Amino acid sequence: MKKINILSASLAMLVFASLNVSSQIKLSDIFKKVTEKQGTTTAATGTPSTFEIGQGIKEALQIGVSAGADRLSLKDGFLGNLAVKILMPPEAQKVERTLRGIGLNKLCDNVIVSLNRAAEDAATEAKPIFISAIKQMTLTDATNILLGNKDAATEYFKRVTTSQLMQKFSPIVTTSLNKVNATKYYSDLTTQYNRLPLVKPVNTNLTEYVTQKAIDGLFVEVAKEELKIRGNLGSRSTTLLQKVFGYADKKKI
């Protein structure tokens, strides 16, 4: 009987020791997770350095402009997006109404589709220009963008990239207009209109018009991405972005 009691006591001690070790391991795991979470929270909510602000803004803008340019360079990127879809040039809108009124809808549609296709072709060249502008951004620029108006980044891009975009887009648009028969379609349209009695002849520099509209469309998409990053917490996908834009949120309260 004494041996049985000793054996039972030994077994109980082993079970207790095992439970104690298991409990310590679980407590250690919990402590580790809490510590890691606290460290992440602190990293994401502290005051960023000037360098971190610069890196955070550049990271955010690179994500944003890449997404915007990629969307527009797809087929129907312009044509299927009502916010940036390119319509007839203002001086040709009366032409369009007149020709649609006499049943030439297909001719008008061909022109509009081809103008948007040319812009979509040109948009493929936008990303490298935007990325270059981001790389050249100073820390002062970055801070001003972070703490500036909701469109501060978009205005920065307009200021530093418009000239380059015009130079880069113009020859691409010219080539694309010819490739998709936009020049021919538009010539057919204006020829039909100019034959009508008592109308004022219409002439449009299509390359200049489509180039400007393509650039305008890019900035619409950039502005959309900027608002998303500033206002949507889910778009702040890294600790650095959370820290930098969380700091900006506090400064604007």
Task: Itemize the secondary structure elements and their pairings.
Blueprint: H1 2-45, H2 50-73, H3 93-101, H4 105-123, H5 126-135, H6 139-147, H7 152-179, H8 182-194, H9 206-231, H10 239-251
Q: How many alpha or pi helices?
A: 10
What number of structural domains do the residues give? 1
Shape: elongated
Mean pLDDT: 80
Distance between the termini: 77 Å
How much strand content do the residues show? under 5%
Radius of gyration: 31 Å
Order of helices and strands: HHHHHHHHHH
- Give the helix level as a range of percent: over 70%
Give the strand tally.
0
Reported for the largest beta sheet, the result is: none
**Structural class by SSE content:** mainly alpha
Q: Stretches where pLDDT falls below 50 for ≥5 residues? A: 1-19, 21-28, 30-42
Oligomer status: single chain
